[in-house]
Amino acid sequence: MIAERLIALLLIAAVACARADEGKTRSNSGFTELPRLDSSFGPLQQRGETATGVNQYTSQHIFESLPTGGRIALQRKESDSLGEAAIRQHMRTISRAFTSGDFAIPGFVHATSKVPGTAVMKQLKAEIAYTPKDLPGGAEVVISTKNPLAVSAIHEFLAFQRMDHRTGMH
Q1: For residues 68 and 144, is the Cβ–Cβ distance under 8 A?
Q2: Which runs of consecutive H residues, i.e. helices, occur in the chain?
Q3: Fewer beta carbons within 10 Å, N or C terminal of the chain?
């Protein structure tokens, strides 16, 4: 109950910050303007930082589709024990949330209530396993299922993540 309230407060604060700083992104020297054609990326990165607890520009996401599902990995680019601990906690949090069919965190990060693939993943939640694993510099969640419809939904979810986070194939 306390954790849910804390998450709700963080989400409210993040939305307020994103609105106040829309079109800007953090850099080592403060805020810098983003190119006008890419005005949604800075706020996405800020919401991602709120959700994960780490700066998205100094971390690396991987959204990899696999034959039985896929994996989401997040690692710090430089040694950072506090950031690594935050990532590991985040991966455990989303693993529990996704297992229960709760995809509010990706909805918050991407500012949409309809993240591709999640409706089917929620419907088939009993057939999908989410396994968090520590990695050097961070952690991952391995997503696995034997249901072909679930695999397709997971791949759709991961493809959207790759596109919106601009990670290319990884």
Answers
A1: yes
A2: 2-20, 41-52, 81-99, 104-109, 118-123, 148-165
A3: N
The answer to whether the CB of 124 falls within 8 A of the CB of 69 is no
Q: Mind listing the pLDDT tens digit for each residue in 12-65?
A: 444 444 444 444 444 444 444 444 345 777 776 788 777 787 778 888 999 999
Tell me the C-alpha distance between 145 and 149, whole Å.
9
Tell me the whole-structure pTM to 2 decimals: 0.73
The closest of 127, 71, 130, 123 to 98, measured between CA atoms, is 130
In 3D space, the residue among 169, 94, 105, 103 whose CA is nearest the CA of residue 130 turns out to be 94
Contact call for residues 98 and 106 (beta carbons, < 8 A):
no
Neighbours of 142 (CB within 10 A): 18
